[in-house]
Amino acid sequence: MSLDVSPELLAKAESGAVSDEEFVACVRASLPYAWEKVSEVAGRVDASGFADDSTPPPSEAERGQLLRALASNAIRGGLERHFGVSLAFQNCHRVAAFAPSAVDSDRYRAFISPRGQLLNQSPELRDC
Fold it and tell me: What residues have CB less than 8 Å from 63, skipping those under 6 apart?
């Protein structure tokens, strides 16, 4: 399970819409490592509109949090709206944040390209 959903939040979702604030709070509580990593990277977006981090997670549990957060359209979208960035992801742990104005940049296109993915491979990342 990706998120620890309280009975109250589940009941609210079953009866109608849930606010972004409620959803993001659930993500923050459920995936603390992923939240911390995205928060840190988003907070370091520089004047060029970019920041990234390729530090491997300390354990497979934390890697799993990051994968769940960035593989889910809803979770990723909630994080992007909350932090005001567009997220990009390579390998199993390289997280990048781009300012909205940088999403149409050469750097963004290079990061998300097949070439960018291939250039960020190494033997030690094959099992991640």
Answer: 56, 57, 92, 93, 128
